[in-house]
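Hi there. Long-time user, first ticket. I'm pasting a complex I've been working with (about 452 residues overall). I'd like to know whether the download I got is complete or cut off, because the file seemed smaller than I expected. Thanks.
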Amino acid sequence: MTMTPETILTPEAARAYELDRRHVFHSWSAQAALTPTVITAAEGCYVWDGAGNRLLDFSSMLVNTNIGHQHPKVIAAIAEQAAKLCTVAPQFANDARSEAARLIAERTPGDLDTIFFTNGGADAVEHAIRMARLHTGRYKVLSRYRSYHGGTETAVNVTGDPRRWPNDHGNTGTVHFFGPFLYRSEFDAETEAQETDRALAHLARTIEMEGPSTIAAIVLESVPGTAGIMVPTTEYLAGVRELCDTHGIVFIADEVMAGFGRTGKWFAIENFGVIPDLITFAKGVNSGYVPLGGVAISAAIAATFADRVYPGGLTYSGHPLAAAAAVATINAMTEERIVENAAEIGERVLGPGLRELAQRHPSIGEVRGLGVFWAVELVRDRATREPLAPYGGTSPAMNELVAACRARGLLPFVNFNRLHVVPPCVITEAEAKEGLAILDRALIVADAHTTS
Ligand code: PMP
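Hi, the file is complete. Here it is re-exported in full:
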């Protein structure tokens, strides 16, 4: 690691770094070239690195800490639960798990009132697909290109981005289709209405050609997250619902990233008034303080397993520490109107602020999002829309942009050619504006790589 004034670590941080490099194997990475930032502390919307620098967390630690870092009520609930009861096997009942399920069921749309708990997002997707297959007696699963559903076997196979490629053994029952994405339309559409119509026609045709009676589920992110925050139209999601109803296909809405306040609603799909059959969740359910995920199940699918054994389970399903953290998180988000805050900051500060940056920075091709869930699509050339980094890759321009943000005190979340603006849902107007001001200066670095 190059030692600059920003990276002169405290002795504790230096030890964490050295041990990490010696013993820790990191996700989605070639290990040799890694130089992970040491994070030593956090509070609200800020984290501190191993050199003592304070960074405004515009990443929410993988779009996760919706309630912000170190919320005192959640910390207290975990400590209280730890003192009372740390572990309970899944076949028993437990007050923390029961209450967490009740609070989640109360917030899900429709009759998705039964909750199966998992340890995170990927296993939630795995189980949702298994439930759909058993419920329908069919095997195929349709999912979008430009999507992410997790790193485990089935979840990575339904994923529609390059992370699937090295993990794909083929013959998995997965069929990918194109969803609506007007900025990079696969359908030569010029308006949202055209894009919606043509994307739905393409999905209908895919179903027809694959054989409707072979398709168990369509799984899609209500608002795709790491793939680029392409907010769909209400008509698109309503159209998917209709196709599912027509053909007896289970509609799985993956809300692992978009759920629990991120879009300014408890669940992103509420923005569109559509009710899926299964919702997968994780991350925001307890802001990642203790690993937790799950599937919210419709009454009809839950009924399938009333007299028939559900063949699946996890030792830590509804772990008391994770469940207690979920109860405290959901209660605090409700009492402190944190979901409403996400909606308001998005509408009043982040959306207008980012659009204003787009007017002045030629590297910004498009700004998309809602709530505290925004993507800034960076391009080399606005006319051709050539991305500033290749699909599935990175580029010196994007690396320089990240470094420029970091040098000015902002922790960004970057994916391929996109800067994702995904701060905690508790972000204040002043913090949002602080972040936008840093982006304004950092984007000059990206502008220098444009050719238009
Ligand atoms: N689905 C979506 C939409 C996600 O964004 C993610 C994680 N980024 C996952 C599933 C997988 O979740 P996890 O990493 O907790 O397994």
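A couple of notes from our side: The CA atoms of residues 212 and 247 lie 6 Å apart. Residues 120-122, 125, 148-150, 221, 225-226, 254, 256-257, 282, 293 surround 4'-deoxy-4'-aminopyridoxal-5'-phosphate (CB under 6 Å).
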